[in-house]
Write a structure and sequence with these properties.
3 helices; 4-stranded antiparallel β-sheet; about 40% helix; Nuclear Transport Factor 2, Chain: A
């Protein structure tokens, strides 16, 4: 009888230890599911966005806002794409590109600093324009960082 109680107790301890271990492992796996960190997402977005503009000197200039090619960029959240679409639909005049916070297209864009806080991150972005910087907010959505706002300063 004592052996049976001891065996049941051991099984219960192993079951609890296994459950706790599984939960810890599951948490690690969820964190590893994030494909790219926020900095890479922002850098990837701006590389693709600037590339979509083309080379003005070669006569291959495209306006991603007019052509709405920004919709195809996977770094943007669906909700943010809808927000930009609505803003463009309602606007009579666009004073500045909402992704670049500028009227002109910079030659280079850099991610200066990224601060993560749980499921949200904010990146400070600079360009080759003098004293030009803005913030990009990202949220972790379904295991991926997505841009949810560009805040022009």
């Amino acid at each position: 009888m004592l052996k049976r109680m001891f065996a049941v107790l051991v099984l219960m301890v192993l079951a609890v230890a296994g459950w706790v271990g599984f939960r810890s492992l599951a948490t690690v796996v969820v964190d590893r599911d994030v494909k790219e960190p926020p900095q890479q997402v922002v850098e990837g977005f701006y590389a693709a966005y600037l590339d979509s503009v083309g080379d003005r000197s070669a006569g291959e200039f495209h306006n991603p806002l007019v052509e709405r090619t920004y919709r195809e960029l996977p770094q943007l959240s669906a909700a943010y794409v809808q927000e930009i679409d609505a803003d463009l639909d309602e606007a009579e005049f666009i004073a500045a590109d909402p992704f670049l916070c500028a009227q002109d297209v910079p030659g280079e864009v850099w991610v200066k600093d990224v601060k993560e806080d749980g499921g949200e991150a904010v990146a400070v972005v600079t360009t080759d324009f003098a004293d030009h910087q803005f913030s990009v907010t990202l949220e972790r959505l379904e295991g991926e960082w997505k841009i949810t706002e560009v805040l022009c300063e």
